[in-house]
Amino acid sequence: MRTQRTANKLGVRSVDPQVNVTLTVNGETISRSVSTRMLLSDFLRHELGLTGTHVGCEHGVCGACTVLINGRSGRSCLTLAVQAEGADIRTVESLAGEDGALHPLQQAFQENHALQCGYCTPGMLMNIVSHLESGRPLDLTDEGIREMLSGNLCRCTGYQNIIAAVRSAASALGKS
């Protein structure tokens, strides 16, 4: 571990221990030296420019920062970048095809008007994708989908269109 002096915008110097991390993000292997205190959300947004991962409450409650960590949904605002050493991370940017084609879940959100401001949407999409890709049976009743979404808060919608979008995406992916 090495120590590096860095200055913030006010010119105040601090000494943060730096650690080298290597992880796979959206299929690309990334190696960087990061502060031991850097959150995964900050690493994704500020080091890699993947701004689709949103930071809402910074307490792990709202779910806006949800990404897939080794195939399971996880809160990037509660995970240190050093904890992700060797992990396979997927962000919302991984969903659309290389040709720009939307993932069936993104398409279903669009077709069902399942978002308003969109701030919570990336985290919600990643949480739902983790369920759709898990291989476990899905409960696609209203109550089952509400349970699936219980870790993601949306202040704009009434969730009905989101429920319809999940059902539509599951059908399009042959999961219903």
Verbal overview:
This protein has 176 residues and is an alpha+beta fold. It has 2 domains: 2-94, Ubiquitin-like (UB roll); 104-172, DNA polymerase, domain 1 (Orthogonal Bundle). The protein is 27% helix and 22% strand. It is built from 5 helices and 6 strands; from the N terminus they run E-E-E-H-E-E-E-H-H-H-H. Strands 1, 2, 3, 4, 5 and 6 form a 6-stranded mixed beta sheet that branches. Strand 2 and strand 3 form a beta hairpin. Helix 2 packs across helix 5. The longest helix is centred in the C-terminal third of the chain and has 13 residues, at 160-172. It is globular and about 50 Å long. The termini are far apart. The model has no long low-confidence stretch (mean pLDDT 92).
The gist of it:
With 176 residues, this protein is of the alpha+beta class. The protein has helices at residues 40-47, 104-111, 121-132, 142-148, 160-172; strands spanning 2-7, 13-25, 28-35, 66-69, 72-75, 88-90.
